[in-house]
Amino acid sequence: MMMMVKALNTQLLITDPTVWLMQRYYWLNIRRAGSEDCNPTANGFYYTGHTSVTENGRQCQAWTSQTPHSNLYTDDSDFPDESIADASNYCRNPANDWSRLWCYTTDPDVTWEKCIVPLCGKSLRRSC
Questions:
Q1: Which residue of 26, 34, 71, 124 has the fewest C-beta atoms within 10 A of its own C-beta?
Q2: Cα–Cα–Cα angle for 108, 111, 114, nearest 5°?
Q3: CA 88 → CA 2, 14, 21, 47, 54, distances in Å?
Q4: What is the SS3 assignment for 21?
Q5: 127 phi and psi angles, rounded to 5 deg
């Protein structure tokens, strides 16, 4: 099935009903079929998936929490979920301030770490 997208000023017209538009940010969240958790953009700002573990296996701290680390991102508009509560403890790039997904960790000795979430349509490959 072919998808057609046209940009008119700040609006997008989508002729494929399986693709959805987040009106506030005017972006398309296109994911491969199935339950894969993938990142729609390289910098991760529009990622709304549920990965909550860092690249080193540390649990992410909830964005609503101020412990064990102070969180500078407290405004709902900082998150693609449009709600800090909905962002839960998932990897995010709030306010689009970083070049990739990350989170504060629950480890008192490690403030934050990067998260690994493959780009949509790409597989995650690690070298041995």
A1: 34
A2: 130
A3: 35, 30, 22, 13, 14
A4: strand
A5: -85, 150
pLDDT, tens digit (0-9, with 9 covering 90-100), for 1-56: 333 333 333 334 444 444 333 333 333 333 333 345 888 988 999 999 999 999 99
Q: Where are the domains of the chain?
A: 1-30, 35-122
Length of the chain, in residues: 128
- Residue 114 Cα to chain centre, angstroms: 12
Answer whether 88's CB lies under 8 Å from 63's CB: yes
Cβ neighbours for 29, distance < 8 A, ≥ 6 positions apart: 19, 20, 22, 40, 46, 48
Pairing relationship of beta strands 102-104 and 112-114 according to DSSP bridges: antiparallel
Half-sphere exposure of 33 toward its Cβ, with a 13 Å CA cutoff?
1
The tens digit of pLDDT for each residue in 59-94 reads 999 999 999 999 999 999 999 999 999 999 999 999
Q: In the structure encoding, which two tokens stand for residue 123, read together? A: 């597989």
